[in-house]
Amino acid sequence: MSLSIVKSVLPGGVVEIAPRGEIDVDTAYEVREAIAEVLTKGRPSRIELNMRLVSFIDSVGISAMVAGFQTAEVSDVKLVVTEPSRFVHRQLWVTGLLGLFGAPEPYFAGSASAEEVKVPGA
Question: Which residues form the STAS domain (predicted)?
């Protein structure tokens, strides 16, 4: 599967980068380039990496996200992850990087918010 990336400007000078597909050894550079391109065109108040439509991410993809975070940080711009798919959320949690990206709750398709999802045994 390939990767496509959509960039949008949200209210308040926030730029959203929304990848769709798989972020792996073949496509991770596209995420790094998208973040770098946003930073070369201006200085947004924040970059939101919306990971809702990412079906897979490997260690190279995670590394690209960390590199993007560091690039944004050097530019004094906060980069956060929003609406991570369950797979992305799990990978960020397992690697101990969830907090680095703002500790986002996983995106659950078909629900209004993560708080409404009933967790078995909770």
Answer: 13-118
SS3 labels along the chain: CCEEEEEEEEHHHEEEEEEEEEECCCCHHHHHHHHHHHHHHCCCCEEEEECCEEEEECHHHHHHHHHHHHHHHHCCCEEEEECCCHHHHHHHHHCCCCCCCCCCCCCCCCCCCHHHCCCCCC
Phi and psi dihedrals of 76, rounded to 5?
A: 60, 40
Sign of CA dihedral 20, 21, 24, 30: negative
Task: Output the six-digit token pair for 29.
Answer: 């550079």
